[in-house]
Amino acid sequence: MASRTAAPATAAVTRRTITGMIMAMALIESLSGVTQGYLNPILPALGPVFSIDDPTINGIFLISNVSFAVLTPIISRLGDSYGYRLVLRWSTAVVALAVLMMALWPSLWTVTVGIVLLTCVVGFIPLMMGILRVSSPGHTRTGVSVMIGMLMIMVGAGGLLAGIVGVNDPTLGFWVAVPFAVVALVCSFLLPDAGTPTREGIALVPLLACSLGLIGFVVALSMGPDWGWLDARTLGSGLLGLTLLAFWAVLDARSPESGKRFMDLRMLANPRIRTVSLATFFFGFASISYFGTNGIFLHASPAKTGYGFGLSPLMIAIVLAAASVFSLASSLLTARMLRVFGERATLVFAGLLLAGGFAVMTVAHGSLAGYCAGFAMFNLSLGIYQAGTRALSVEGVPLEETSTAAGLNELALTAGIAVGAAVVKLISSSSAESGHISNGGLVSIWGVLAVAALIAAVASARYPKRQAAEVPA
């Protein structure tokens, strides 16, 4: 009898340990969600406080986008080389320092530096996926679903809380992230030290080629509408960036005998990794790049533009917070959907749902209820693909490359967002009437993003079917 009861008791302890670890990871990821959500209402309101104009504020957003792109592969690679928990602790500490600095000493310089430091949150999910995959591979999908759910809900909640706290003084909104930073830093010390670091040095030349190439590419896409797409600065920055990225791809796709690499791009030869990366690019293109236009549409006055609902910034924050509940629910269900319906069907459904959301917005945008129905479909798809692609991005790669593979997927997402945002901005600028996007321009944006969502669905349809023996427990 003793031997029969021992196994269930051990299993119960294991389940409690895994549950506690996933909850700690979710709390760490809540800091990422808050810091990504609370800047949206704060930064546009800082103009009168810091005596800066809109181009300067847009420049701060540009710095943030560039930092996200550059730090994504670097932090992920450091995790595989020097340990997931160690790099996660340092990343969390840097983000906590940035949060405190902006709250205690708000100024143009501290906010600019702080926003660069905040982008270290890009490493949270790849690093925690490394810990989770080594500690309990069978719970990777569930853990990712919980982390993405927390990310989605806290992006909406962070913006709402910052808007409420900073309604009279926007700098007070920076305090919203302080308690989350403290909790996340404490939780980073509660996670196990999983995996054996490779201690492999990072090749400097491929790192510089990747980083500088991303900077040139993102700057060209972000500033092209302002500088002009045929301007020498845009063309020079874009061509230099693409050349450096191509040079990096050649260096990191070579065999190990040819020299050290920054990231092992040979993993893209794996059909699963290649398919997920391509789908992730177009999912990012079709979804996150739309959030700016969504705010413009909801805030627009129908009397002036012929569309919109004239919502206040606070009401827009409430709409976003409410919509994030749909992303939370769908992300929590993603692990079950992957298991029941299969990886291919789940991702294809996410793409079709996203395209359907834009179709509903196009047809029913004259009604707030109709538009919100389309936006709800948008957010349901957001939760599914964010959790699904991240979980699948590390399946089929060696354990010691888990963080790098997850980082490669994050890089595909970042690139898709940058390209999508540039396309949306190009359509907005070319269709502007009296300083506002025309109704035809909005329809064009919805149409282009719907096509990108359909491309993501088509790319997902190429995901290899799993064999019966590969079904996760």
Unreliable segments (pLDDT under 50, ≥5 consecutive)? 1-13, 467-471
Rg, Å, rounded: 22 Å
Number of strands: 2
Give the distance, in angstroms, between the N- and C-terminal Cα atoms.
27 Å
Count of helix runs? 19
Shape: globular
| Fraction in beta strands | under 5%
**Biggest beta-sheet profile:** 2 strands, antiparallel
Task: Decide which structural class fits the backbone.
Answer: mainly alpha
Fourth-level CATH superfamily of the largest domain: MFS general substrate transporter like domains
Oligomer: single chain
Q: Which percent range fits the helix content?
A: over 70%
Cross-sheet strand order for the largest sheet: 1-2
CATH architecture of the largest domain: Up-down Bundle
Q: Which CATH class of the largest domain is shown?
A: Mainly Alpha
Set down the secondary structure blueprint.
Blueprint: H1 2-37, H2 39-42, H3 47-50, H4 54-82, H5 84-104, H6 108-118, H7 124-135, H8 140-165, H9 178-188, H10 204-227, H11 232-252, H12 271-286, H13 291-299, H14 302-305, H15 313-341, H16 343-364, H17 368-392, H18 402-430, E1 432-433, E2 436-437, H19 439-460
Antiparallel strand pairs: 1-2
